[in-house]
């Protein structure tokens, strides 16, 4: 499948039609990222789809095809959607860790929140773990996590741009609790996921959906698993059998 990026889903589809020289009825596609208008230029996001022409024959073996599909969808996820269920082994503190931590502390000194400690560590070559601790952490999370998501998005964009790192953000066990609920959901519905040719989850908030997507792929590697956005605040995870060639 091939990636297409445009301001809207329709524009992305038009690019796919031109690329494959076919009608829209002949295009098979998945929405990887839904477009967002943003606010005063912040948060603006183009649409991203992955598409192929129907009945398209792959030249790769079936196992390679499965791996390519998983890797392609992974690469199209927005930064704020990238989390892992299990924390990778951490490295010793580095100069880069200290530099990032200092910059984050300087930033949050400007906000009216009491934060006792900000921990920063690079867990893998391209993952940064940031943890906030203090009496005002509940305020940093906000009602239904809305402030958490805003902080995560802003930090993610900056860290990705300046340091080429992805972000895992923990505030007062908010991320840990989300991961726990996703794990409970997986345990409850695992048999249905592996036995059915199609399974769709309940709606998840953006953070839970990102955690669920990666956790489900780890647990069920022989299924084709994607995230579908149903609104700005909710997404579902779809578990399918891989299409036969």
Model description:
- This protein has about 240 residues and is of the alpha+beta class.
- It has 3 domains: about 1-55; about 60-85 and about 175-245, Ribosomal Protein S8, Chain: A, domain 1; about 95-170, K homology (KH) domain (GMP Synthetase, Chain A, domain 3), CATH 3.30.300.20.
- It has 7 helices and 9 strands.
- The chain has helices at about 10-20, 60-75, 95-110, 135-140, 145-165, 175-195, 205-220; strands at about 1-5, 25-35, 45-55, 115-125, 125-135, 165-170, 200, 225-230, 235-240.
- The strands form 3 sheets. A 3-stranded antiparallel beta sheet has the order 1-3-2. It has a 3-stranded mixed beta sheet with strand order 4-5-6.
- Helix 6 (about 175-195) crosses helix 7 (about 205-220).
- The longest helix is centred in the C-terminal third of the chain and has 22 residues, at about 175-195.
Q: Please outline the major beta sheet.
A: 3 strands, antiparallel
Quickly count the helices. Answer: 7
Which range best describes the helical content: under 10%, 10-25%, 25-40%, 40-55%, 55-70% or over 70%? 40-55%
Domain unit count? 3
Radius of gyration: 19 Å
Shape: globular
CATH class annotation of the largest domain = Alpha Beta
Q: What order do the strands of the largest sheet run in, or round the barrel if closed?
A: 1-3-2
């Amino acid at each position: 499948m091939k990636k297409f990026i445009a301001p809207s889903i329709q524009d992305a589809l038009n690019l796919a039609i031109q690329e494959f020289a076919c009608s829209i009825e002949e295009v098979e596609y998945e929405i990887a990222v839904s477009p967002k208008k943003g606010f005063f230029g912040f948060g603006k996001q183009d649409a991203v789809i992955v598409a192929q022409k129907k009945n398209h024959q792959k030249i790769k073996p079936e196992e390679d095809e499965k791996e390519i599909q998983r890797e392609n969808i992974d690469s199209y996820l927005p930064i704020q959607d990238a989390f892992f269920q299990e924390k990778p082994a951490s490295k010793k503190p580095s100069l880069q860790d200290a530099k990032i931590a200092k910059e984050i502390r300087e930033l949050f000194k400007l906000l009216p929140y009491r934060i006792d400690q900000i921990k920063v560590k690079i867990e893998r070559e391209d993952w940064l773990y940031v943890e906030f601790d203090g009496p005002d952490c509940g305020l940093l999370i906000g009602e239904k996590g809305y402030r958490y998501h805003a902080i995560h998005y802003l930090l993610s964009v900056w860290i990705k741009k300046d340091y080429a790192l992805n972000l895992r953000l923990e505030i007062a066990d908010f991320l840990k609790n989300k991961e726990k609920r996703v794990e409970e959901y997986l345990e409850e519905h695992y048999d249905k996921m592996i036995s059915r040719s199609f399974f769709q989850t309940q709606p998840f908030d953006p953070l839970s959906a990102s955690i669920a997507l990666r956790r489900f792929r780890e647990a069920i590697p022989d299924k084709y698993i994607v995230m579908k956005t149903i609104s700005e605040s909710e997404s579902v995870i779809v578990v399918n059998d891989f299409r036969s060639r």
